[in-house]
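Budget justification aside, the reviewers requested a transparent look at the raw inputs and outputs of the sequence design task funded under Objective 1. We therefore reproduce one unedited record. The lines immediately below are the C-alpha cells for a 735-residue chain.
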C-alpha cells in the first residue's frame, strides 16, 4: 500500500521461467522500481463470501435441471410394431442386411431347380421353325419376355438390322465331271457368291497341318476344289485355310465318323471368320445406322458349300490320283483307301445365296443387386436355329428361363440378396456367328468391361454324355473346378462331376482352348470379359434338321432332363458365387502361368539370335507376377467386411481381362484383340509362329514387323500389370 494507491502483481512460475528464458539469463529489463506485495484475497468479509457461495449453488442447480430435462428426451426409445418387447427396453441398433450363407444357397438352388420345370420349358420353347428374324423367332422372344415379366424382373430389348445369307430361288449346285451330283439343299452363309471350277483335292479336315502334309508331298492346292470333312474346327477356319493357299472352292461334308445321320441329310453353317454382322465390322447395326460401306476382313473370297454323305460318296469313290496319307481313310468308304484326286476329277461349284437384311431382337431381364447394382454378370443363350435346333438353342433357352425363375424365387421367398446384378439375355441370329450378341457388345463396347465381370453361355450345353468339356478364361478355372466338386453326377449321385470326368488332371481332361465356334468367344476376346461355356458332349448332328428332341434323347441315353438339371446347377452355383461373396472369385494368378508359357516359347526361339529386347518381355512378365502376388497379399491382409475396400479390390480384378486387349489394333481390322486368347498378328501365339517363319527363312517372315509386334505385345502385358497393381502411385516400372 502506498498512500491511496495500491498495486498487486502475481507471477506464475512457468510464466516467470518463460520470461526468464526469453530475456536470457533471467535479467528483467522492465523491473518495477517499487517493492512486490502479495495479494490479500483472503481478507474478505463474511457477507461477501456468503454471497459468493450462494451464487455458485444457484448456477449448479440451474445446470442440473437443464441436464435432467435434456437426458429425459434422449432416453425415449421408439418401439416399432415389428420390434420384440422385453422386460427391459433394448437399445435401437442398425438393422443388419440378411444374407444366406453359402451352404444355404447351394441347398436352395438344388431344391428349386427342378426337372419338372425344365421339361415344361422344353415343351413350351420347342419350335420347328425359328430362324433369325422370322415370325417364329419373334414369337419365342415374346414368350421369354413374358416369362421375365412374370418373375418380376426389369426387362428390355434391343433391335438390330443385320445382313444375313439365305438360299436363292435357284438352288446351289455341285457338278462332278460335268454331271450334277444329287440335290444340294444345305448352304453356308457368307460364302462368296459365284461359280468356279477346278480339280478335286481331298484334304481331310482342312486343318493347317493337313495342308502342310499335302505340301510335304509336293501337292499344289492352287486352283483346286478342296473336299474336307466337317468337325474339329469351324467351317470358317477350314475355308480360310484353303483360301490362303489359293484354292478355288471348298466342299464340306459330314463323314459318318463324326456324324450319325442319314446319307441325304443336309448340313447348314456359316463361313465368316469372325462374329457379328460382317457388313458392320466393329460397330453396331442399331436402327439402320449409317456408316460408310464396309465388310469384315473375315469374309471369304472363294465359294464354299456343304454336301451330303450321299453326294460326298458319289464324288470320292471315283477320285483318282495318289493315295491319301495314313489316317485319312477311316470314314465312309470302308475298307477302301481314299484317293486325293487328280487333274481329270473336275468339280464345278455354283453358289447362289442371297444377301438380305433382317430385323432381330435380343431380349433381356435383370435381377438388380442390393449393394453393387452397377456390377453384373450376364447369362446368355441363343434363341434361333436353322432347323428344329433342339440341342442348339431350345435346351439353352429353357435353362435360361428356369434359372431366372429359380433365382427370383430365392429372392422373393427365401431372403437371398445378391450383392451384384444378374442379367439374363436371349440372343438372336446366333446361327450366323453370334450376330445378336456381338452387335450388342459392339453397341456398348466402351463400358461393358468396366461393369460386366463375367459371361456364361448356355449354348449347346447338352449334346450327349460321352464327356464333359469346358472352355473359359483362366480367371475362372479355379471357380469351375470347385463347382464341379460341389455338383453331383447326373447318373451316379455318389460321385461329383469332378470325380466322374476330371480324373487326376482336371485341366487336361476337361478344359479346351476357346475358339471361334464357342459362343463365349466374342465376349472373351473382343470385349475383354471373363467368359465360360461348357457342355455334356458327343458327336452330335448340329446344323441339321435331325437336331430334335428324339435325337438328343438318343444321344444322352434318355438322360436329357437329368443332364439339364446338372448343367443348371453348375451355371447357378458359378453365378451365385460371383454375386454372393464380397470379393469376386476370379483368380488373377492363373494368368501368370499362361504368360510364362508364351514367354518361355518366345525366349527359346529368340535367344539363338540374341534379340536385345527380350529383357523387355521378361520385365513385363515379372511385373504381372508381382502385381498378382501383391493383390493376393492385399486380399489376405484386408478386412473383407469393409465394403469399400472390397470394391477397390474387385475393380483391380475386373481390369485384368480388358487390359489384355491390344489397344494397338482396330476392332474393324482385328475383332478379337485379346493377346493371349484372341486371333491375329498381335497375339503372342502369332509371335511364336512368326519366329518359326524367321527361323525357317519363309517368305512371309519380316524381322522389322516382328520387332514392332513384339514391342506392342510386351507393352500390352505391362499395361495389364499396371492396371492390376492399382493406382499410379503404387507402381514402380523400370521397363
Amino acid at each position: 500500500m502506498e498512500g491511496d494507491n495500491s498495486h498487486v502483481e502475481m507471477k506464475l512460475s512457468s510464466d516467470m521461467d518463460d520470461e526468464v528464458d526469453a530475456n536470457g539469463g533471467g535479467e528483467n529489463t522492465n523491473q518495477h522500481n517499487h517493492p512486490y506485495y502479495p495479494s490479500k484475497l483472503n481478507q474478505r468479509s463474511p457477507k461477501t463470501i456468503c454471497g459468493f457461495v450462494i451464487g455458485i449453488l444457484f448456477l449448479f442447480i440451474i445446470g442440473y435441471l437443464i441436464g435432467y430435462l435434456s437426458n429425459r428426451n434422449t432416453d425415449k426409445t421408439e418401439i416399432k410394431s415389428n420390434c420384440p418387447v422385453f422386460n427391459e427396453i433394448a437399445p435401437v441398433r442398425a438393422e443388419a442386411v440378411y444374407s444366406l450363407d453359402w451352404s444355404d444357397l447351394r441347398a436352395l438352388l438344388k431344391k428349386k431347380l427342378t426337372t419338372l420345370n425344365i421339361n415344361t420349358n422344353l415343351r413350351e420353347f420347342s419350335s420347328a421353325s425359328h430362324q433369325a428374324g422370322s415370325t417364329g423367332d419373334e414369337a419365342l422372344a415374346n414368350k421369354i419376355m413374358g416369362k421375365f415379366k412374370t418373375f418380376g424382373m426389369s426387362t428390355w430389348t434391343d433391335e438390330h438390322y443385320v445382313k444375313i445369307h439365305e438360299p436363292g430361288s435357284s438352288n446351289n449346285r455341285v457338278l462332278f465331271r460335268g454331271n450334277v451330283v444329287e440335290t444340294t439343299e444345305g448352304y453356308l452363309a457368307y460364302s462368296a457368291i459365284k461359280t468356279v471350277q477346278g480339280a478335286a483335292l481331298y484334304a481331310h479336315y482342312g486343318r493347317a497341318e493337313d495342308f502342310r502334309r499335302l505340301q510335304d508331298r509336293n501337292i499344289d492346292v492352287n486352283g483346286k476344289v478342296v473336299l474336307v470333312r466337317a468337325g474339329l474346327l469351324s467351317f470358317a477356319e477350314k475355308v480360310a485355310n484353303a483360301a490362303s493357299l489359293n484354292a478355288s472352292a471348298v466342299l464340306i461334308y459330314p463323314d459318318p465318323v463324326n456324324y450319325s445321320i442319314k446319307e441325304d441329310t443336309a448340313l447348314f453353317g456359316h463361313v465368316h471368320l469372325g462374329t457379328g454382322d460382317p457388313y458392320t465390322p466393329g460397330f453396331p447395326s442399331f436402327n439402320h445406322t449409317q456408316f460408310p460401306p464396309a465388310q469384315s476382313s473375315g469374309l471369304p473370297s472363294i465359294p464354299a458349300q456343304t454336301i451330303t454323305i450321299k453326294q460326298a460318296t458319289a464324288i470320292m469313290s471315283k477320285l483318282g490320283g495318289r493315295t491319301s496319307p495314313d489316317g485319312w481313310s477311316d470314314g465312309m468308304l470302308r475298307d477302301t483307301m481314299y484317293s486325293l484326286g487328280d487333274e481329270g476329277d473336275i468339280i464345278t461349284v455354283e453358289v447362289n445365296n442371297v444377301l438380305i437384311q433382317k430385323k432381330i431382337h435380343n431380349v433381356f431381364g435383370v435381377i438388380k443387386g442390393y449393394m453393387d447394382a452397377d456390377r453384373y454378370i450376364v447369362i446368355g443363350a441363343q434363341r434361333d436355329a436353322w432347323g428344329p435346333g433342339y440341342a442348339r438353342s431350345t435346351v439353352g433357352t429353357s435353362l435360361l428361363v428356369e434359372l431366372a425363375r429359380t433365382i427370383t424365387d430365392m429372392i422373393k421367398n427365401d431372403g437371398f440378396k445378391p450383392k451384384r446384378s444378374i442379367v439374363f439375355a436371349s440372343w438372336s441370329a446366333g446361327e450366323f456367328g453370334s450376330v445378336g450378341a456381338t452387335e450388342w457388345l459392339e453397341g456398348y463396347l466402351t463400358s461393358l468391361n468396366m461393369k460386366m465381370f463375367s459371361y456364361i453361355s448356355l449354348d449347346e450345353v447338352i449334346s450327349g454324355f460321352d464327356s464333359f468339356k469346358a472352355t473359359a478364361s483362366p480367371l475362372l478355372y479355379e471357380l469351375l473346378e470347385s463347382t464341379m466338386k460341389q455338383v453331383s453326377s447326373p447318373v451316379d449321385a455318389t460321385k461329383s462331376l469332378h470325380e466322374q470326368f476330371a480324373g487326376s488332371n482336371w485341366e487336361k481332361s476337361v478344359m479346351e482352348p476357346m475358339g471361334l465356334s464357342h459362343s463365349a468367344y466374342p465376349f472373351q476376346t473382343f470385349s475383354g470379359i471373363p467368359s465360360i461355356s461348357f457342355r455334356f458332349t458327343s458327336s452330335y448332328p448340329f446344323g441339321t434338321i435331325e437336331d430334335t428332341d428324339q435325337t438328343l434323347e438318343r444321344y444322352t441315353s434318355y438322360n436329357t432332363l437329368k443332364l439339364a438339371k446338372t448343367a443348371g446347377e453348375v451355371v447357378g452355383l458359378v453365378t451365385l458365387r460371383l454375386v454372393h461373396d464380397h470379393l469376386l472369385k476370379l483368380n488373377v494368378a492363373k494368368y501368370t502361368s499362361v504368360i510364362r508359357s508364351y514367354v518361355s516359347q518366345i525366349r527359346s526361339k529368340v535367344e539363338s539370335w540374341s534379340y536385345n529386347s527380350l529383357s523387355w518381355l521378361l520385365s513385363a512378365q515379372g511385373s504381372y507376377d508381382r502385381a498378382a502376388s501383391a493383390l493376393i497379399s492385399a486380399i489376405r491382409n484386408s478386412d473383407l467386411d469393409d465394403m469399400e475396400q472390397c470394391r477397390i479390390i474387385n475393380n483391380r480384378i475386373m481390369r485384368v481381362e480388358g487390359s489384355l486387349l491390344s489397344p494397338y489394333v482396330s476392332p474393324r481390322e482385328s475383332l478379337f484383340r485379346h493377346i493371349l486368347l484372341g486371333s491375329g498378328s498381335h497375339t503372342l501365339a502369332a509371335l511364336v509362329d512368326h519366329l518359326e517363319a524367321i527361323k525357317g527363312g519363309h517368305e512371309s517372315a519380316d524381322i522389322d514387323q516382328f520387332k514392332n509386334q513384339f514391342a506392342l505385345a510386351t507393352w500390352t502385358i505391362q499395361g495389364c500389370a499396371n492396371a492390376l497393381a492399382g493406382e499410379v502411385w503404387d507402381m514402380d516400372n523400370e521397363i
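The longest helix spans residues 46-74. The radius of gyration is 37 Å. Computational costs for records of this kind are itemized in the attached budget.
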